[in-house]
Design brief:
The protein is 69% helix and 4% strand. The protein is mainly alpha-helical. The chain has a single domain (29-167), classed as Protein Binding, DinI Protein, Chain A, CATH 3.30.910.
């Protein structure tokens, strides 16, 4: 009788543990965050705004470079006629202007990165919110970005990109099937 009770108790333990493992099974999915963001109308507007911002920076840089070219050309034409003191003054002025141009370029790059981050932040947040909603609705425990370096295998059934796009109201043509280039036979 004790052996039957032991067997029954052991069977119950395995059944309960099995139930716990099944209950703790996690559903994993992935999304192409870049694809989702690029398809969002907000991204297109942000991209246009960023292009305008960069164009303004380029125009400002062009003005500084034009000023430098004009002053350098003037210096070359008058260089031999100038007194040593005036020549030194003009050379110093050219060096300072060149330094200002370099400083402007560095600041412009930093400002450009900040502006891009500022424009993309609400888009990323909106996309992540939609991903979270889809994950909850479909029952995914984790959703990964398929563009990250850690993704080595991704079954198509766990791709939630289309569901996230639908959640955001994005309707676009399905992506073209990826084809593999034929491999030439070895000779």
């Amino acid at each position: 009788m004790k052996s039957i009770i032991r067997k029954f108790a052991l069977a119950m333990v395995f059944a309960l543990c099995g139930g716990v493992f099944v209950a703790n099974a996690q559903k994993l999915g992935y999304v192409d965050l870049q694809e989702v963001m690029v398809a969002m109308p907000e991204y297109k507007k942000a991209n246009t705004d960023m292009e305008k911002y960069q164009k303004q920076l380029e125009d400002d840089l062009g003005k500084l470079q034009q000023e430098f070219q004009t002053k350098y050309k003037s210096y070359e034409e008058e260089g031999t006629k100038l007194s040593p003191t005036m020549r030194e003054f003009k050379e110093k002025e050219l060096r300072q202007l060149q330094e200002r141009i370099q400083e402007f370029q560095q600041t412009a790059q930093e400002d450009s990165r900040k502006k891009e981050a500022e424009l993309l932040k609400p888009i990323v947040e909106k996309a992540k919110s939609a991903i979270g909603q889809v994950a909850k609705e479909v029952g995914y425990t984790y959703v990964f970005d398929s563009n990250t370096a850690g993704m080595l295998y991704k079954p198509e059934g766990d791709d939630v990109t289309v569901l996230v796009k639908k959640k955001l109201g994005i309707v676009d043509a399905p992506p073209a099937p990826k084809t593999v280039a034929p491999v030439a036979p070895k000779k």
